[in-house]
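Work Package 3 (structural annotation) set out to generate three-dimensional models for the target panel prioritized at the project kickoff. During this period the team completed the workflow that converts sequence records into discrete structure tokens, so that structures can be stored uniformly alongside our sequence database. As a representative example, we reproduce one entry of 505 residues exactly as it appears in the project archive.
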Amino acid sequence: MLIRIISASLHGIEAYQVEVEVDISPGLPAFIIVGLPDAAVRESKERVRAALRNCGFEFPAKKIIINLAPASRKKEGSAFDLPIALGLLAYLGMVPVDKLARFIFVGELTLEGSLKAVRGGLPFSLLASRKKLDGLVLPGRNSREACLVRETKVYGVNHLLEVIRLLDGRDEHQPSSYSQEELIGPTGSELDFSEVRGQQQAKRAMEVAAAGGHNLLMIGPPGSGKTMLARRLPTILPEMTFEEIIEVTQIYSSAGLLGDRAAISQRPFRSPHHTITDTGLVGGGNYPRPGEVSLAHRGVLFMDEFPEFSRQALESLRQPLEDGWVTISRVAGSLSYPCAFMLVAAMNPCADVFLGSGPEVNCTEMERRKYYARLSKPLLDRIDIQVEVPPVKYQDIIGRSPGESSAAIRERVSAARKIQLERFRGRKIFSNAGLTSRDLRQFCWLDQDASRLMEAAMKRFRFSARAYDRILKVARTVADLSGEERISAAAVAEAIQYRSLDRLG
């Protein structure tokens, strides 16, 4: 007897349909799973056997062959427990066979028949919507994330017996339903820019970076507030759109990092330690998983002690920063993860932190250059804004007047982003940071004074052609924050100030 059940598996962050074929025939008792299963899939036969017996069903003493099609793709994870068990229950006459091809079934079984959460609830729901199936049956803990896709009927169940009652019609089980507020939740943050004392120039650089989506490097002694500033950057970025929430939640769902959350509704902030490997940073492994750059998608990747990261890890950032995607290639194939993030890096003025920890930075020119040499020029060229963060003044520390709030800064940032979206309508550009050299000639108009200032700066500081492009992008953002169509000399002057390392020579 041959029974077919629809299930799904993950390839990167995307789900694809898997047809679970269950063939039960006379012969010596055996339980064989084929179709490139990994160890977790092969072990499912023991979980399924115990779950059926503990639920009061007789396990067929026959030759059982499970085929996971397409057989050319490697299958991983424990999500096939439920469809395999349903195939055996269909053979026993406990569930109608015709319904097994109208839903996607995924779920891990415990030995007593309960269903445990699996990775990929949201991708599975998106797949059910694309395939126009009747619905998705999955563990109850995954139901909230799956309900983000309104077009899919999601049935969250907690036990194998509950699935049987759902399919045979004995239980009037309604699809899971949640309001958007229940799914997305509050989007506020406890952090606020008003808590930052002093550092007006650094806060202005943060505002410009947020308004144009620019990468940012902060250079300053320990205790100057670099980490404090970085952690508050997401609070001034525009609120995530529903499409962005789906994108980011899909990544976290496929990585199994959602926990009890239904969605990622706040812009991610990832801060890996400098001992991280290049695989941990960009993704990969024997069973490829998204790295920190993908987990920071639509948010911020903060890299403190920037020069202390390994050279290999730092150089692995170049392609993700340029393309917004990271591609992981293996012998069996390749997969891609999105990684459109803002890089915020922080570093000390020199390797000896004690030299730069007082009111004055005592690093010599030679010590600075030696420390900065740990960062390659191509990587630095991908960082639009480089700003110095000096020690906080005593008057600022004891001051009682609060600084400007994140809400006020976010309002200006959002207004600038709206200008950019309108300007780039019809193009695959969403902020000034994504401008190409051709776009710069079209959208970055310098007035006469600005043009003369740029020419003088190019001669004095010997800026490269790539640095010239970066200055134009940042100047375009400064002009957008001021609501100016043309780029003024003041906007160019501010953008030049944000090239600390280039001006160092």
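The first strand starts at residue 2 and ends at 11.
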